[in-house]
Amino acid sequence: MNSLTRRKILSRAMTLLTASFAALVIVALVIILGYIGVTGVREINLGFLINEPKPIGEPGGGIANAIVGTMILIAIASVIGLPVGILGGLYLAEFGSNRFGNVLRFVIDTLTGVPSIVVGVFAWTIMVRPMGHFSALAGGVSLSIIMMPIVARTTEEMVRLVPQSMREAALALGAPVWRMSLGVVLRAAAGGVATGAMLAIARIAGETAPLLFTALSYNYMSTDVNQPIASLTYQIFYYAGSPYEQWHAMAWAATLVLVAMILAINISVKFLARSRYQ
Amino acid sequence: MTTNKSPGLGIVTHFLTPLAWLRGSKRFGDPLFKLATLAFALAIAGLVVLMIIEMARDSTLAFDKFGLSFIWREVWDPVREEFGALPFIYGTAVSSLLGLLIAVPVSIGVGIFLVEHAPRALSAPVSFLVQLLAAIPSVVYGLWGIFVLAPLLRDSVYPRIQSALGFLPLFQGNPNGLGLMTAGIILSIMIVPIITAVTTDVMRAVPRAQPEAALALGATKWEATRVVLQNARSGITGAVILGLGRAVGETMAVTMVIGNRPQISASLFDPSFTIASAIANEFTEATSEIYRHALVELGLILFAITFVINALARLLVWSVTRGQGKVVHE
User: Fold this and answer.
1) Nearest chain B residue (CA) to A129
2) ipTM here
3) 3-state secondary structure of A63
4) Domain of B186: which CATH number?
């Protein structure tokens, strides 16, 4: 076999190999999601979504408290994390094109890489210990810390996409820089910023580690932000670690609810973004 | 912002008139705006500093008692209040490296496929599906790991590995499905998206003229691809290190499948413990003050490790994408 044929065969083989890797990853995704769907759907009914948990052995238990809890945690995190993230990102985009901006950006990026369990420990030291008890508020704060760097960086990216000519037009009409930034640039980037915010919400909805010793969990319906609160992720973790078949089944069903919610956000954001930019 | 001309609001407008200068002000409004947004950006960055201070303050007891030897002490005994981080560092390192061992070839392969081979109509959806793996929460991987992957590995994969390679210390013992190897496999699935995403970005940042020149000189497709890989080398290294950072800090999935036993064992089938999973498991149960301080010190070590890893990775990725005006996605 001459060397050209060998090189061509190698090239073909490598193409095939990389394609099969891509196929492998997608198969893994399909297997995981498929298993969640098939196993989770058996246990799901209206009662599961609107009832509170029942003691083991009693049928008809649900996860309503965990769904409400997750929503409340997301709301607290968003109220704190979104404004800080969006305005911080606006600074990086509008004033951050210098050495100082690069340092800030670098530090904020490292915050993205801080493990969520470490964020949990940090939230415990600044919230739970001074307050003396676990609370939804502490859980929300720890989630907001995870949210901030993500929102800041996506906001920066989106604001940078706004054409320079729009800024110049606003300034030429006599607007001060702050009105130009808030009223023209941020408004033009609003769709993209909202996309980033939704993705950040999808991300924190799936977090468990920062809640383990901040929000903890609660067995009943609760809307008191000063008390521990249930969440879907904690509930899944708790049920998975229990020895009961019935709770395992509930863990799968709760997972289906959580994953469906997160994928719905991811997929709708994808299609919204496409219709805007293409 | 809008001036309301309706008569009923006249009184409001009247009292707001002194503030009207602000609406068009460049002298006060602009510096104020810059300062306000700066404050928010600084607040986010300041969290990193605050984290270090808070965790250092909360680990003094353990630090005073064990000093730096905390890092290489092998004993973890809450009852006798003897603490050392080595078993956790070992578990973290081995499980993460196992994860990389599987994830790196696959991710780079997928990256090559997306950039060099897949037509545009295929590349976008495939890349989206790969990124969906990153959207699945950690606790869900853990659940799937306990009930699907671990039993499968225990019953059909590990016995085969043992019968073929059982003479190696790496594969001895009595695999029950929960241990280092299972954790490594779960981790590999979880870090494929990030390594793939960054690899794709850095490969796209290589000027197309490079592989085209190679093709024009008679190179095969694979040889031209190697030119691209060569150019993106440091960025791909950065991608791998970012994946390592993700694996090191991963908590829920690992804690659910690694078996949670603080020991250093040569066998990959044996249960182990990682820094993150130790904190997750024991923090609320830490009864004594020094026990909790030891756990916070573990957190500080984890923070330091991931900080160095991420800083290094970002510098490497920047060295390739710099000047491209691109932001590397996670």
Assistant:
1) B58
2) 0.94
3) coil
4) 1.10.3720.10
